[in-house]
Amino acid sequence: MHAEVRVSAIALRRPLQLAARALIVAGIAFALLYVLLIAQPSPEVGGNWRTTNFGSAIDDWKSFVRTLLNGVTSAGLLFIVASGFSLIFGLMRVVNMAHGSFYLLGGYIAYEIQQDMTGQGFALLGTEVNTYEWVLPALVAVAVIGGVGLVTQQVFLRWNQGQELRQALITIALSVILADQVIAHFNEGIASTVTWPGWTNRLVGIPLLGVDYSLARLLVLLLGVLVGVALWAWLYRTRTGMVIRAGVDDRQMTSALGVNIQLTFAIAFVVGSALAAFGGVVGASQGAVASGQDGQWLLNSLVVVIIGGMGSLIGAVAGSLLYGLVFAFSAVYLPTTGDNCCTQYSIVFTFILLALVLAFRPQGLFGRHG
Amino acid sequence: MSRLTRRWKLLLPLSVVAVAASAFVSTSGATSQAREVRVAIMTDCKGAFGFGYEPDIGGAQAAFAQWAGGKPKDAKKPSAGMTGIKVAGTSVKIVGYGCGDDTVPTAIKETRRLMEQLKADVMVGPLSGDEAVAVANYAKAHPTKTFIIGTAGSQDPTLQIAPKNMFRYFGDGAQWNAGIGEIAYKKLKWRNAAIIMDDYSFGWTSAAGIIADFCAIGGKITKRVFPPLNTTDYASYVQQLPAPSSVDGYFWVVGGTGTGASLTAFEQAYGALKPSQHIGNLFFAFLGADKVVAPKVVSSYVGGFGTGPGLKTKQAKAYEAIMAKHYPGLNGGNYADGFVSNYYHGAWALVQGLQKSKGQVGAALQAALPRSIKSAYQVSNGGVMKLDGNRQAIQDQYPLQIVKNADGSIGTSVVGFVPNVDQSFGGLFKKTSPAPGRAQPPCVKKSLPWQGKIKVVKNGTITGEVIK
Amino acid sequence: MGIGALVLVALGPLVFNDYWVDAILTQALIVGIAAASMIFLAAYGGMISLAQTALMGIAGFALGNMVTQRTPGGETKGLTLGWDPTLALVLAIAGTTLIGILFGAVASRSLGIYFLMITLTYSVIAFYFMGQVTVVSGFSGISGINRYTPSFVGDMVNDRYRLYYIALGVAIVVYVLIRYVVKTPFGLALQGIRDEPVRMSSLGFAVPLHRTLAFGFAAFLASLSGVLLVWWQGQIAPGDIGLQSTIDLLIVAVIGGLGRVEGAWVGAIAFIVINNYIRDSWLTDFLDDVKVGGSFNTIIGLVFLAIVIVSPDGLLGLWDRLWGLVRRGGGPAAPAVSPSPAGQQG
């Protein structure tokens, strides 16, 4: 009797799974078609399920391209921050809950350095900042936070490897302390900006796509790509990188092979923290850095790593792109039927993205099992 | 493991517990002997307005120092405390400082801690709009306690909830923006504008003032955009604003972390900002965000904060002298910040009320609290600011402009004077009308009491000229 | 000793003053229920869930939306459906349990630290949802909820002792329920899955389904906590389920001891007392004196850090060791009887 029930349950599972997958594929296809073809521009008052801010890609090609670029450029920043998180998590299985705090600290340190260099109390106009005055604060911030990361790893995380929950709790405690210290020592946690060098402050025409787009945002994308290429070169072309990849695959074996795994861990943590800090500097330049953002960026890193898969560079790229694009498009292309609908539901789409990935590939798109 | 290490392993956590225990043993010795009035000052020490902690406390305590004989323990750090406050022969004790973080649950917990655990009779605070709504609900359930709102700008506490034991001696977020719409219409010749606002109650309230003012005189709001609070990437929202060529101007009601980020996103979408096309609410000129934003929008007009920075009236100068005397350098010397001045006036009103009630609290104090006060920046009615039937101030307002000073630094200058702005905005907001929201108020033409009566202010002096 | 504590708590209103009973003890009971749901999952399911706060909030928001009525004009926060409080209560609890099952189903195939990350993401998404979707809440939240309570519950606004005893009763029921469930075949299977998921799967147990149902049960417990929370607080806002609150609940569970269900309430009372009294203490002045700066939040972070480093079993683990020392006069400490999930591999 039991066996029969089990067999028929299995027999049912297959078609159910197929049906579920078909439904998902249909949903995604509909969403794409909606953005590309179905949507219509919204009228002065009212609207229906088809009307959006700009209509479809056919109605308003430029807005579509701009939204696409918005998503891709914000993915650049997401990648910089999340790649550090993924590296630390993939190699050391440490959920560094203080990653957001490193982002915050990095941004504020760069702000303070830039203010010291140019001697004002107010935010600087682009025209007053040259490339050196952006690069130096960035380098200092990255170096300082790399050091903080090293100290954190050696003092708090080295002696309890393998105890993942304990390490997560320790980093949580550190993030609480760091967040409070930021308020105490850095401009009271008020929103502060780092200013891009003046030459980024213009629109450039993009050939082929036919739109003008902000050079500063494209710079963010470029920086993300550079970071990605540098990481790839490091992980796939250097000995340390090889050890790290081996460690991600099988930590015990790597250690048993006589590799100095402790040194590798330390290096990975430093690099991960440095990436968070660099992300903080870029984020502070793009918008602002303010206390409370550490939680937001921890969430962003988590979402990217969950979607893309932990410890995987290509996964971080994929996760950042998906997350950035979903975020950008859902803010603009949801229907506007009136005053209380529907663009405020954009957060739901982030959840849907997450749920879809977890339902069908729980280890992430490019992650490995276990 | 030897016995020694084990014992040590125990001692460490025990000592942690002991240290923690001493933390609250040392505070629980609050026994009151003689009759004293217990006051709590509630503000934020965390979150978006955490920097308001010292300015708020300093503002309130300066009033106690000036009018009730209080002596600051540290003129550079208001939260160090104050002694010797005495009104009508009764001593007044500041029992605690509330530490909110701009969220409702913390506001409730802090309020309960101050009013029930530390047994405060009066609260001066809170700071933020949502906190004030929570405190107003609490006040309604606790009629024997008295609440004087610190600097919160939400409309509900004195319009929809309006408990009888809650007072506000300054205007709400909508009142602060009175006059700015008319300036946009007349001086900048705007006829249609877009508005971008934080998608929560203060954003809606502040925007409501702008929209009501601008539409009343004939302007049209062509597009409203609502980025969620705490957005980090404003590109997608700024994209929804009409292009600079298709609209006369933009109203910005984005605060906190978003003021600078949203303007940067606008620059990155449409090129350099033309100051004459942008008007912001108080976030352009106060509360820290101004440091990020102001350099880009020099000469833009800005909605006020109910205060007149640089105003040269007698009352204003007297107020600033008082602040400089007791807490010099507070808030960077910027005493015309509502954070300082609103707490000051609340505490001053409290002192006056206690004088009249002869040190009694509760219902006696609520009856005795002044229904009018010589507010620092009030000019109408001979400098007397009155409270309406909901214990809400009818306050003169001052639209501002961002200016570059002679020494190259950036500041704000008062450009207009709007007399007697009331909370109902000339009958637009009633207890039964829908609260400010995404579509409230609608853009309608009507006549407001101060329409056509906004006076020009030059160099801190109110001229007789009306803005044309 | 447990009985002694229980008697003390039952006599609470006679022993402690009003403020302590209402603000500290009642809150500790409510938070303890939510922490107990987290500890249940951690100790018996091997899953550290950071979504319990979110589930607690969802129940509270659901109840708030269903029960409050539209006041003439003014703020109309939430859906203000104005339904019958008893029906709303049942729907809120049932709905949250269903959402818990959905969350669990999505996350059930992930293990250990992954699971923690996914549930953390749930938590923050729920926070943003409640903050941004202004139709159901908005940033200011919903207030006045405890004016509409079922008749068998009574007046929660004024009769705070009644609320205290209701919270106490529910806490006892939750505790007994957890202890009962872990002894049932389902509970035993769950513990087997915690220890040896592959072996259990090869024995024919549907591992993801078990985990999902366990998560649903924990969601049910968290929903009880959420309902009590809105009766106690009267209001609920996204701040109640934000990242800070999520971490606070984790701190509560860890301080108490993640291995034992009693730890939930021990941790809750310790955390609430520390949080409440630390603000006016000499410790923050000490921080200033050593130029470290910061507020009481730094102190709380340091205390938490110390506890995690020194005694990962939390206060109860500390108590066990102390007791063991006293009884054995310094002999070898007794091994931890309860399962500790700290060493779970992902």
Give me some keywords for this one.
heterotrimer; A: 370 residues; mainly alpha; ABC transporter involved in vitamin B12 uptake, BtuC; two-stranded antiparallel ribbon; B: 468 residues; alpha/beta; Rossmann fold; 2 domains; six-stranded mixed sheet
Give me a quick take on this structure.
Chain B is an alpha/beta fold and 468 residues long. In chain B, 35% of the residues lie in helices and 20% in strands.
Largest sheet of chain A: 2 strands, parallel
Domain module tally of chain B? 2
For the termini of chain A, the CA-CA separation is: 35 Å
Question: Which strand order do you get reading across the main beta sheet of chain B?
Answer: 10-9-11-12-13-17-18
In CATH terms, what is the architecture of chain A? Orthogonal Bundle
What's the mean pLDDT score of chain A?
86
CATH topology of the largest domain in chain B: Rossmann fold
Unreliable residue stretches of chain A: none
Note the gap between the termini of chain B: 87 Å
Rg for CA atoms of chain B:
23 Å
Number of domains of chain A: 1
- The helix-strand sequence of chain A is HEEHHHHEEHHHHHHH
User: CATH superfamily of the largest domain in chain B, called what?
Assistant: Response regulator
Structural class of chain B: alpha/beta
Beta fraction of the residues of chain A? under 5%
Q: What structural class should be given to the helix and strand makeup of chain A?
A: mainly alpha
Under the CATH scheme, which class of chain A? Answer: Mainly Alpha
The coarse overall form of chain B would be globular
Q: Which blocks of ≥5 consecutive residues of chain B have pLDDT under 50?
A: 8-33
